Amino acid sequence: MVADWVSFNVIDTERQDWARGWASLKRFTERELHARVPYGHKEGAYPLGQWVAEQRRAYGAGQMTGLRAKRLEKLGMVWSLADERFQENLEAAKAYYEEHWTLCAPRPATALDRPVGQWLSNLRRPDALDGHPEWEAALREIDEDWNPAWPADWQRHYAALREMFVEESALTYVEPGVTVHGMDIGRWYHKQREYAVWHGLMPGQRERLERLDMEPSPPEAPTKPKAASGAFERGVAALAQYKARTGSATVPRAHVEALPDGSEVKLGVFLSNSKSRRAKLTADKLQALAALGLEWAAA
Fold first, then answer.
1. Could you tell me if 34 and 81 are in contact, meaning their C-beta atoms sit under 8 angstroms apart?
2. 205 in Cβ contact with 154 (< 8 Å)
3. For residue 238, which of 264, 199, 273 has the smallest C-alpha distance?
4. Residue 113 contacts by C-beta under 8 Å, 6 or more apart in sequence?
5. pLDDT one-digit tens code per residue, 20-54
6. What are the two backbone dihedrals, phi and then psi, of residue 69, each rounded to the nearest 5 degrees?
7. Distance (Å, whole) CA 19 – CA 28
8. How many Cβ atoms sit within 10 Å of the Cβ of residue 160?
9. Is the entire prediction scored with pTM above 0.85?
10. What is the pLDDT of residues 179-204, one digit of tens each?
11. Cα distance between residue 163 and residue 150, in whole Å
């Protein structure tokens, strides 16, 4: 301690003040085992929190000598609290991935007593990682599909299926009803193989299923639709295909869905028209729409 004080070369008031701040921080770190001092904290009568904040400001502005920076870092000084919080949450994310094989955690998920699901969800928002390419790289190093172009729920099911196939290398078929982490992977497996669903997936989704040696079932023999209800049935089929691919029944008004037979359905317009004509739809048509998640059809 005496050597440290001598090395400060205490001559003027500024150096004396800095030395007092350093000594207060040293006492704090020896007691608390970290240097994350709350802004309003006082060490005795000394406003240590404000002093630490001023050191961070000086460091960020390039106004701190290398010697002082090294002395603070020796005490465990963290120059960026955001970086520190990221690293702490990243450790929780690693723990979650080791158990679930994916970082597409549902929002309520926790790991190491941290709300890792909500944290990852926040980071997937547009522009959330602007200015932090190193954070993006760290997440991709754990899971290349941490922020996929398709729904996170689809990725969770895929990760669970992949886990099953890897752990049971002789497995080539999954029965409906088989669950992993509470998800019916068997039912999902067969749904993805349906001809219409498979061809409605994004190329990246099909590529990942093919890694598991999955391939689509052959198309069903086409049936001639009833003349009176063909348009409605095609609309329902298009909605079912869209929901299977995206996980949502919310469709932009301008969206056009291509069916496996090559025909196209103006799905957004179809749903808008169906809603406006709800009172004229038969009970079975309303039931078909409600079954696909349209609340207004079930009301």
1. no
2. yes
3. 264
4. 92
5. 999 999 999 999 998 888 778 899 999 998 898 89
6. -60, -40
7. 14
8. 23
9. no
10. 999 999 999 999 999 998 999 999 99
11. 19
* Cα–Cα distance for residue pair 264/178, rounded to 1 Å: 35
CA distances from 253 to 133, 241, 257, 266 (A): 35, 16, 11, 8
Q: Report residue 1 as tokens.
A: 């301690």
- What pLDDT, in 10s, does the model give residues 265-287? 999 999 999 998 888 888 888 88
Q: Which residues make Cβ contacts (< 8 Å) with residue 298, sequence separation at least 6?
A: 286, 290
